[in-house]
Amino acid sequence: MKVLQFTIPVAHDKTIITQKDSLPAFYPHLHRHEEIQLTWIQHGHGTLIVENNMHAFWSNEIYWLGSNQPHVLKSEELPFGTKNKKNVQALTVFFNPEGKLAPLFELPEFKKIKSFVEQSRNGFKIPEAHVLEISSRMLKIHQSQGIVQFLAFVELMNFFLTIKSLEPLITGSRLSAVNEQEGIRIGYIYNYIMQHYDTEIKLEDIAREAHMTPQAFCRYFKKHTRLTFVSFLNEVRINEACKKLAGGSFDSIATVAYNCGFNSIANFNRVFKSITGKSPRSYLREYEQLDNTSDTAATKSA
User: Fold this and answer.
1) For residue 163, pLDDT beyond 50
2) Residue 17: how many CB atoms within 10 A of its CB?
3) Which of 38, 102, 184, 245 is the most exposed place for a label (fewest CB within 10 A)?
C-alpha cells in the first residue's frame, strides 16, 4: 500500500473527467491528486480513510474529497468462492480548479463557488436528503459531452451552494505534507492495521513491520497522524464494529467485540462509547429505528 501522487489524465479537449468503476474492489493504494474528487458509491461498502480519519461507507453515498487529500476506499473483501466479481460500482467526477478551470473560477460570477471549494478542502459527505439530486446531476455530466457536459458541471457546482451544514471528513487540523517515501511507510502501516485489526497487534509487532524500534515508531506515528497507535487501532476496530452492527450479521454484541479484536466486552463497551458517544446497544437501537423509518418512508412513496 503506497501513498501515490498522480494527476488524473484529462483529454486535451476536456476540463472535467468522469470515471465509471465496476470492479472486484476499489483502487487499493493510499493516494492523492490535485483534482477534487466527487464519488458516488453506487454499490459496495467498506471503510474510507481520509488522512487520519475513518468513515464507514455504504451503497448510495456520495463523498467530496479535497485536493491532495490522501485517501483510500477499502472495500469489504468478497467471501471465498463468490461468483460475482463486480463487488463495487461507483461514478466519480474529477476536476481541478487550479488547472484548466482556473480562469473560470476567477470570474466574478464564480466568487461564491470558489469560496465554497476553498472552504471544502477537508472534504465532506453529501447529506442523505441531497443524494438523489446530486447523483442524477453527476449521471448527466457522465452521459454528456462538450458544452452540455460543461454546463451540467456548472449547475452542479451552483447546487452545492444550496446545501447547508456540511460535516467535514477531517476533524482538527490537516496533516502536514509528506514526501513519497514517508507516504509509502504510512500507507504500509495503515494497511497492516486494517488487515490485522481483528487480532492482537502488539506495539513490537507493528514497529517491526515499519522497521523501527517501538519508541521511534510511537514518535513517528504520532507526528504523522496526530494520534497514538492505540487510539488509531481502536478507531479502526470501532469503525469495523459499527459496520458489523449495522449489517446485522452477528450473533451478539459480544461476538462483534471479539471479532473486532477486543479481548473483553467491558473494554469494548468503554472504547465504543468514548469514540461514538453511545453504547453499542444504543447505537444498534438508533440504527434500527432509523432503518425502520427509512423503510416506512419508502413504502409510503411507493
Assistant:
1) yes
2) 17
3) 102
